[in-house]
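Worked example

This section walks through a single chain of length 108. The input is the sequence exactly as stored; nothing has been trimmed or padded.
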Amino acid sequence: MTVILWAFTLFHVVVGMASLATAVRLLAPEERAHWRSPVALLIAEFMCWIYPITAFVSVRSAWGANEAGHPFALVMILAPIAWLVVMGIAFAIVDFAEDGVLGNAREA
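Given that input, the structure is written out below as tokens.
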């Protein structure tokens, strides 16, 4: 279990840092100008800012649960991945509802 927790901890660190870098990039006016849909931009920002927080809380809770012998440590550390899936589905729904085409919320 310790190896699995370490693997997902490192995964969350890497993805959390990438998420923060993307969130900071989304604050720039030249990046915001590329987005056609303000709702899709809002969802992308929300996903990028919240993921590192959920990952940190999840990792801390999972390691604490593992030390206490709680059987749901693995479920706790997988929760941020569920956050990414749910927000990805929400982003796809908004993107498709805007113009009927997936992947068209941002211009090149």
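What to look for: The CA atoms of residues 3 and 14 lie 17 Å apart.
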